[in-house]
């Protein structure tokens, strides 16, 4: 991860207290290869906004004046989600909430190829009596959450506090609004789907995850646009990132199907696209592989959790 970060223009995860909205660094290799590192402030954009921005930039570079792009609408999101007047004094919210030190987290990349995904979907379908055709993201999420629960129970098996387990999925709100917003809508348009296990014995995790994700619907977004919904959203964020008390959380963000591998500045599509280190404990980023039929899982755990949830516990072991 330290090598990958050298391709970026700034050090990521510095508390987001910088005034820099966008940074780009172009890296040239001795063999003629090029790596483009892009950093965008999360104050103004989510992952889909960043990917769409880079695609538009590449299209203009490739086609010049002939490029036809939909210009981003920077004013739409503030009109739909007006700035809150909520007083957060004493709420423990800060720009560094949930951020860990570099020395206390470990990031691993696990690649699920086409065969891995087919096996996981088949296993998830067998364990669920209520989901007949799980998606690849659902199957991978359930698989990793299951192993996270098992690893955490081993860690706390001699403790006096009984742990419950929570999984969250960052959900893109654009398609869930009424009417839906175009994917090119620029801004931070996401919310958390919060799943708490129904019981330690219930392994139908796919159904639990799907149920909570589908609760992020048009009615939910409408509530999020008023003060009460915003308060609930912030409360869930606070619970998630504090990571204290009787609940152990695992956070998922899926970038699968984002047009990352469609970026072409004129010399062809990327050989590889990736993220860099995320200084948050218990977070998993899912990305489509270049061929489109696999998933890369970037798993960041605390050092102690990584020992319990090592790659050897992922059986059958996915390709590393």
What's the short version?
With 320 residues, the chain is an alpha/beta fold.
Tell me what the structure shows:
The chain is an alpha/beta fold. It has a domain at 99-313: Chloramphenicol Acetyltransferase, CATH 3.30.559.10. Helices cover 31% and strands 19% of the residues. It has 9 helices and 8 strands. The protein has helices at residues 2-5, 47-63, 76-80, 114-127, 136-155, 205-214, 218-224, 227-242, 303-308, and strands at 22-28, 34-40, 105-112, 164-172, 190-196, 247-254, 283-288, 295-302. The strands form 2 sheets. The protein has a 6-stranded mixed β-sheet with strand order 3-8-7-6-4-5, with helices on both faces. A hairpin with a 5-residue loop joins strand 1 and strand 2 (34-40). Helix 4 (114-127) packs across helix 5, helix 5 crosses helix 6 and helix 7 (218-224) crosses helix 8 (227-242). The chain starts with a helix and ends in a 12-residue tail after the last helix.
What would CATH call the homologous superfamily of the domain at 99-313?
Chloramphenicol acetyltransferase-like domain
N-to-C series of helices and strands: HEEHHEHHEEHHHEEEH
Q: How is the biggest beta sheet arranged?
A: 6 strands, mixed
Strand content: 15-25%
Distance between the termini: 15 Å
Based on secondary structure, the structural category is alpha/beta
Overall pLDDT, averaged? 83
CATH topology heading of the domain at 99-313: Chloramphenicol Acetyltransferase
- Low-confidence stretches are 315-320
Count the beta strands.
Answer: 8
Assembly state of the chains shown: single chain
Across the major sheet, the strand order is: 3-8-7-6-4-5
Q: What's the alpha carbon Rg, rounded to whole Å?
A: 20 Å
The first-level CATH class of the domain at 99-313 is given as Alpha Beta
Gross morphology is: globular
Number of helices: 9
What is the percent of helical residues?
Answer: 25-40%
CATH architecture of the domain at 99-313: 2-Layer Sandwich
